[in-house]
Design a protein that fits this description.
- The structure is a single chain.
- By secondary structure, the protein is mainly alpha-helical.
- It is about 65% helix and about 0% strand.
- It has 15 helices and 2 strands.
- A two-stranded antiparallel ribbon has the order 1-2.
- A hairpin with a 2-residue loop joins strand 1 and strand 2.
- Helix 4 packs parallel to helix 6.
- It starts with a helix and ends in a 12-residue tail after the last helix.
């Protein structure tokens, strides 16, 4: 907040009202979630159980959507009746030139991936291997590059930190079973092969997309508007432009607030703001135990791939980080 106000004092062409409204909204979010976090620190197991249940239901639903696709039936949209999150989101399967993308109850595949990666970490922690297999299969079906890369990172991390040979052995067996089942499905179910080809194409083309001069999904998520950073005055390179201000400052380019969290942080809050953000995460990482550090890793990974700062998935992943922090960082407000 202080950084944003300082930026406004030294920068022209900014929208002060938009800045204040955004700051007030985010502060209210943090106050409300801090109250929730204060309670959840003492009820972590209940929260984890609820996350696993929702994850299992959403993964089973994407299997149902996939089955409908195989049988040429109408694919259910996944929108929960009466739930209004974003009127512009239909929750329907996404049709692209590459093929059909399913995403269960979530607005898009990457959001399903974010939720499932956190839940998958819990399945590994509590040895719920049947649920784990279902979650892995759901991540493959949803064709999210974030889900694929996150899946590999989560498995590798748990195998590296685990001191239980049994857990490492089970992880390797799950990977082996998954490879065998995939081989059978690829050769026996053409529709499944199409889904898998789409997933692999998205991952393998990330490098080409980053080098493309066009705004593809990959380079918008990973690089975004980073090339606008050199256009900033020297002072603004350090202090940024202020909360939600880079689209206003570069209004003639008709930009929209979409990129990965690091790039948006850099443009809005400068080198100082991005450094504070990363140092805070590093401080938390150092203070929590090895098993809980996977949530910081997932948080950092999602920041690379999505503009999720201060949206519902940001607070969802951040909840895992905060409630395992040994010190009481939650603000407790008592009447």
């Amino acid at each position: 907040s202080i950084n944003s106000l300082i930026s406004f004092l030294f920068t022209h062409n900014l929208d002060f009202q938009k800045m204040i409204m955004s700051l007030v909204k985010n502060i209210l979010y943090f106050v409300c979630f801090s109250i929730l976090w204060g309670d959840l620190k003492e009820k972590k197991e209940i929260f984890y159980k609820a996350v696993l249940i929702v994850s299992l239901i959403s993964c089973l639903f994407i299997f149902y959507q996939f089955t409908c696709e195989l049988l040429n039936l109408e694919i259910p949209s996944g929108k929960i009746w009466g739930l209004i999150i974003d009127k512009d989101k239909t929750f329907s399967p996404i049709h692209t030139y590459q093929g059909l993308r399913l995403h269960s109850f979530f607005q898009e595949p990457s959001y399903l991936a974010i939720y499932t990666l956190a839940a998958l970490s819990l399945s590994l922690r509590y040895n719920k291997y049947v649920v784990l297999l279902i979650q892995v299969a759901a991540l493959v079906i949803c064709t999210s590059s974030l889900g694929y890369i996150g899946l590999i990172i989560v498995f590798l991390y748990y195998m590296l930190i685990s001191e239980q040979k049994k857990k490492i052995s089970v992880c390797l067996k799950i990977i082996l079973v998954f490879i065998v089942v995939n081989f059978i499905l690829i050769n026996g179910v053409p529709e499944y092969k199409e889904f898998l080809d789409l997933s692999m194409e998205k991952v393998l083309n990330i490098s080409d997309d980053l080098q493309s001069e066009e705004y593809t999904s990959a380079n918008m998520r990973i690089l975004g508007y980073l090339h606008f950073f050199p256009k900033l005055p020297l002072l603004n390179k350090f202090i940024g432009l202020g909360q939600s201000q880079f689209t206003t400052y570069f209004i003639e380019y008709h930009l929209y607030n979409y990129s990965n969290a690091y790039v948006i942080n850099l443009l809005n809050h400068g080198i100082v703001g991005l450094t504070v953000f990363l140092l805070a995460l590093l401080q938390i990482y150092k203070k929590i135990n090895k098993e809980d550090r996977i949530f910081i890793i997932i948080f950092l990974l999602v920041c690379v791939a999505d503009a999720f700062l201060f949206n519902m998935y940001f607070f969802f992943v951040l909840t895992f980080v905060v409630i395992v922090y040994p010190q009481n960082v939650a603000i407790k407000i008592r009447s």
